[in-house]
Specification:
The protein is built from two helices and no strands. The chain has helices at about 1-25, 35-64. The longest helix has 27 residues, at about 35-64. The two termini are about 15 Å apart.
Length: about 60
């Protein structure tokens, strides 16, 4: 159960990072984050952290 929560949280964090990155690059408009370089850099870093978190959860699940 705990690994499922880690995987789900990692996927949600990854999705948020992707959205932030797309907003920062200007592909998604209508936000104060649109076109801001900080979000274009921070978004992919957050997405990478989410991907890592999900991978750790999957690795723990397969180790059992």
């Amino acid at each position: 159960m705990k690994n499922s929560l880690i995987i789900a949280a990692g996927v949600l964090i990854m999705i948020a990072g992707i959205v932030w990155g797309l907003q920062g690059l200007g592909y998604i408009g209508g936000s104060v984050m649109s076109g801001v370089t900080f979000w274009a850099v921070a978004g992919p870093l957050v997405a990478l952290a989410g991907l890592t978190m999900a991978a750790v959860g999957l690795r723990r699940r397969s180790a059992r």
